Amino acid sequence: MISPSQTASFSAARSVARIRSSDAADRDLPYRFRCPASAVNMRRTSRRDSSDSLIRPSAGTNGVPVSWFQDAGGLEVAEAGITGRGVLLDIAALHGRQWLDPGHAIGRDELEAAERSSGVNVRTGDIVLIRTGQFARREQDGPWDSAQAKAGLDVAAMPWFAEREVSALGFDGDGDVEPSRVPSVEAPVHVLGITAMGLHFFDALGLDDLASACAMRRRYEFLFTAAPIRLTGATGCLINPLALF
Q1: Local structure of residue 193 (DSSP, 8 states)
Q2: Domains plus CATH for the chain?
Q3: pTM of this prediction?
Q4: What are the C-alpha distances in Å from 137 to residues 11, 37, 169, 242?
Q5: What tens digit of pLDDT does each residue of 183-206 get?
Q6: Which residue, 132, 105, 100, is CA-closest to 206?
């Protein structure tokens, strides 16, 4: 049995998700965000993006044709849940700060430095969680328009995850830095991670409690588990992920 002291919950729903109406009009983009006619606003709630939340019309996702997702859906890929070795890379702590400034683009060198400082090696199949301190900043300074300014991954750092053969990425933001380094592509980190690399993406995770638990134990690896809601044809869902030490 896992005692409460050994389990860190880092789902951070900061507001009640509201139902909204959304049209699914396809924009003239090389990659398209799929959105059902009725959607839950999950911008500030821990969530998993499905494998077909972002697709390339001519190629689908990670080489899988669009027709497969139309038949099977994206969430169904992980309907039994996602469990594996989780690794926290606390980039804010690496810089000795509570949070990174909006616009900070996390580079390959910072990922490797966080590895060294944490005493972990990211390896095949890992679920890597990136902490920027976004929730800590919000708690102290209040809300701001993070769609226009937030810390995130430099798109040039994405090949590092491919080299390490990770299976999933999770963020306390959504992974994309704003202002974007690639303004011609919407959410370029998502484009590469989901569409080209076939990764599971977890957004809006409250990683502050997890960071404290890791620091206290001086251990930045753990058993990660998340069970997506079973929905047919959905492009994302709320989750309550856990880290077990």
Answers
A1: I
A2: 4-12+83-227+238-244 (3.50.30.50)
A3: 0.77
A4: 17, 33, 21, 23
A5: 888 889 988 898 888 888 898 898
A6: 132
Phi, psi at residue 214, to the nearest 5°?
-65, -45
Encoded amino acid at 182, one letter: V
pLDDT digits (tens, 9 = 90+) for 129-179: 999 999 999 999 998 898 899 999 999 999 999 999 999 999 998 999 999
116 with 153: CB under 8 angstroms? Answer: no
User: Among all chains, which residue has been given the structure tokens 């959304």?
Assistant: 22
Half-sphere exposure of 84 (CA within 13 A, CB side): 21
Peptide bond into 179 cis (omega under 30): yes
Give the SS3 label for residue 22.
Answer: coil
Q: Which two structure tokens, joined as six digits, stand for 57? A: 């019309």
Tokens 């206290």 -> residue? 216
Contact 187, 145 (CB under 8 A): no
